[in-house]
Amino acid sequence: MDTYLKFYIDGAWVDPVADERKTVIDPATEQPFAEIAMGCAADAERAIAAARHAFTTFSLSTHEERLSLLERILTILKRRKDEMGDVISREMGAPRHMAREEQAGIGIAHFEQTIRAMREFAFEYMQGTTRILHEPIGVVGMITPWNWPINQIACKVAPALATGCTMVLKPSEEAPLNAILFAEVLHEAGVPKGVFNLVNGDGPTVGAVLSGHPDIDMVSFTGSTRAGISVAQAAAPTVKRVHQELGGKSPNIILRSADLAAAMRAGVDKCFANSGQSCNAPTRLLVPQEKMKQAIGIARQAAESVRVGSPVNPDSDIGPVVSQAQFDKIQGLIRKGMEEGAELVAGGPGRPAHLNVGYYVRPTIFARVTNDMAIAREEIFGPVLVILGYDSDDEAAAIANDTPYGLASYVQGEAGEARAFARRLRTGIVRLNSSAWDGAAPFGGYKQSGNGREYSKFGLHEFTEIKAIVGFGD
């Protein structure tokens, strides 16, 4: 078993204060394959002190110095892309080909987008006789999840470095190894001592210290809404900036003008991608009532064509979910949907018949669901899709917005009609007609899906404070 028993603090790999450890489980085999050190409050304090000390000088670094640093990091990330993908695949279960191209690839894309945005971003400009400055906010505590791990690390670290912030990262203890590799990349790229620090640990210990510490100026959190509330409560006494990207229960509205078969197949594939473990997955699919029977038939065929298997099998479309706890949660909600009277179209409880080991979930679809059912309201975070019917566009919009979440939504239909419908949706992102991911688009949500925006120039704004020097031009 591989062991990773050091933290990256103040430019060096150091021993933890205590000797608590955690095994990392391969979700495809249910067997431990690595061991990490788990940090305590003292480890977090040491990392925060290093970041605070480094901020004094790094905050005054030039635009050109920071841009050069980002470019060096990007070069090394590209060189180690497949290695990063393989690590992510092993620790959280994504198929290896997907982990290399999408999981590792999106981390690279965030650095590319940040470099592009940084070249164009006006860190200083005149407004009349006043000089407007965008200055680094300070020391940032970063708490990131396991489902798209390097995506969420990169989209926080890249803008923090670009703006002159220093940081302490606590990655998910479920999938921590990609963060360790990422720290190696930053060290090789020559990130100055103390600018980037990594401490593994759990939320109640390391996460709580980062959220509440007076020397942390901003906490950037991605995870569940429940955990996000705890982060915000811990941060409140120090009045620090809290940026959160939280849960979702995203609707996918198929308008009457859409190609039903194409839209249904694309919607099923998008929902099940990454084993359904995406906060913006289109998990509520809305179809016209008169097309429900046809939609069910298409959905069933699409679900039955999804190949569930080992992450190392190149033919696998999806792998296992991340952990026993996640598997159990999903199974409970599938059974809940059956108890609630929803029509089980495909899948159901248990593993696929050909798999008896691993946290594999049967791709599951429920139809004739009503929006008051638990499976329509709770974020399942697995390959489970619910289909709801609607009679009018007004009803479709009302159902889509009837959720505490507001991260993403999807609309399929004639272009002009889809654009108009998008304006009715209370979500931070609307994707029309299976459009491709856009790394320059702002990412974040309304309501209980969080606050603030990530990606590209929007991330740069999040990591800066605005200063006005009045009379500068007199």
TrEMBL record:
Which Pfam families did the record assign? Aldedh
Respond yes or no to whether keyword Oxidoreductase is given for this record: yes
Q: What is its EC number?
A: 1.2.1.3
Top-level taxon of origin? Bacteria
For the protein in the UniProt heading, the enzyme class is oxidoreductase
| Protein family according to the UniProt entry | Belongs to the aldehyde dehydrogenase family.
* InterPro entries given in the database record: Ald_DH/histidinol_DH (IPR016161), Ald_DH_C (IPR016163), Ald_DH_CS_CYS (IPR016160), Ald_DH_N (IPR016162), Aldehyde_DH_dom (IPR015590)
Reaction(s) this enzyme catalyzes, per UniProt: an aldehyde + NAD(+) + H2O = a carboxylate + NADH + 2 H(+)
Q: Which GO terms describe its molecular function?
A: aldehyde dehydrogenase (NAD+) activity
Q: Which residues form the Aldehyde dehydrogenase domain?
A: 13-469
Q: PANTHER family, per this entry?
A: ALDEHYDE DEHYDROGENASE, ALDEHYDE DEHYDROGENASE-RELATED
Q: What is this protein called?
A: aldehyde dehydrogenase (NAD(+))
| Keywords, comma-separated and alphabetical | Oxidoreductase
The record, for CDD domains, names: ALDH_CddD_SSP0762 (cd07138)
Family matches, as SUPFAM superfamilies: ALDH-like (SSF53720)
